[in-house]
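Design job #97: recover the sequence.
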């Protein structure tokens, strides 16, 4: 009896040793899967069909221009819905409010909604010249502050951004240009190419030019004040609303001829709201979290990556990497942006 009992304990300890020796493999099996959301296509007068032709997205209506796909959004009127894994069918707001620590980690902003918003932009025509209100003016203007960054995923030859003011332009000259319809002559133009990026703080006058595909990472805000819209009409055939008074109250008139980031290296943008980094990955190179115990977002801008479940995610995909997830791996070569909250 004693021998049998001793043998029984030997078996238990041997099994324990086996589990300890295989712990790293087991953790990989237990690790949380990545999370991907369904994109929300938005009709825009300046948009096109590149979300379908480049990224393979199914667009709701034929022959209609779609300028944006909201990839990660938690707003009262728009919600990202999970497409894969154990949280499939849940909204981003549900994840943020009911599973915050297990998915996103600890010590995050105590906000009612997920604090970032990610978009893909397809500009076939120039966007309006616009501005987002700065923090110190947003509430009195009835809006939300919005700082963002753009990564140029693709650019047609000659494509431009309109960012900041030209040298010599002051508020008086700008106000005069509004009255005589020459606002475009007051804005700084920058020629861009794929791989460029630029930071757009609240208060910076800006417009995306025609012929660009852009990844936009921003604060969770939907406040935009248009100051000039190229004298065109909207999809309803009517001139789009302008917000001249709010724009003038928001524009930073000291912001003269800012420059794009070209060959900027590792960190593309850093501010109190987000940090965006760029990685060029060789075959089978892995990318994981920026901070241990905190979520990251990965934006595949070239190539494809594969997750721990063997699922391949192509370019155009934004992946939420939960704090309990490990990494993704480049299928061949890939370019990936990684966003985290500082």
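Job complete. Output follows.
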């Amino acid at each position: 009896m004693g021998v049998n009992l001793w043998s029984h304990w030997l078996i238990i300890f041997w099994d324990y040793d086996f589990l300890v020796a295989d712990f790293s493999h087991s953790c990989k099996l237990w690790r949380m899967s990545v999370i991907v959301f369904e994109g929300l296509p938005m009709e825009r007068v300046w948009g096109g069909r590149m979300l379908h032709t480049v990224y393979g997205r199914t667009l709701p209506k034929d022959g209609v221009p779609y300028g944006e796909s909201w990839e990660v959004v938690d707003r009262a009127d728009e919600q990202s819905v999970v497409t894969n894994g154990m949280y499939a069918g849940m909204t981003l707001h549900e994840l943020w409010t009911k599973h915050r620590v297990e998915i996103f980690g600890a010590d995050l902003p105590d906000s009612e909604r997920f604090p970032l918003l990610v978009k893909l932009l397809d500009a076939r025509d120039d966007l309006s010249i616009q501005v987002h209100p700065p923090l110190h003016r947003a509430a009195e203007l009835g809006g939300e502050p919005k700082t963002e960054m753009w990564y140029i995923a693709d650019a047609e030859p000659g494509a431009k951004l309109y960012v900041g003011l030209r040298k010599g332009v002051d508020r008086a000259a700008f106000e005069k240009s509004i009255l005589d319809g020459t606002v475009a002559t007051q804005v700084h133009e920058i020629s861009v190419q794929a791989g460029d990026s630029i930071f757009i703080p609240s208060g910076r006058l800006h417009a995306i030019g025609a012929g660009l595909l852009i990844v936009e990472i921003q604060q969770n805000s939907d406040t935009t004040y248009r100051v000039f819209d190229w004298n065109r009409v909207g999809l309803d055939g009517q001139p789009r609303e302008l917000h001249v008074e709010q724009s003038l109250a928001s524009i930073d008139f000291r912001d003269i001829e800012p420059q794009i980031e070209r060959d900027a290296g590792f960190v593309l943008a850093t501010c109190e709201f987000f940090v965006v980094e760029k990685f060029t990955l060789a075959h089978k190179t892995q990318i994981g979290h920026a901070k241990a115990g905190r979520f990251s977002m990965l934006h595949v801008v070239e190539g494809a990556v594969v997750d721990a479940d063997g699922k391949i995610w192509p370019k155009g995909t934004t992946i939420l990497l939960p704090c309990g997830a490990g990494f993704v791996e480049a299928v061949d070569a890939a370019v990936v942006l990684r966003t985290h909250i500082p």
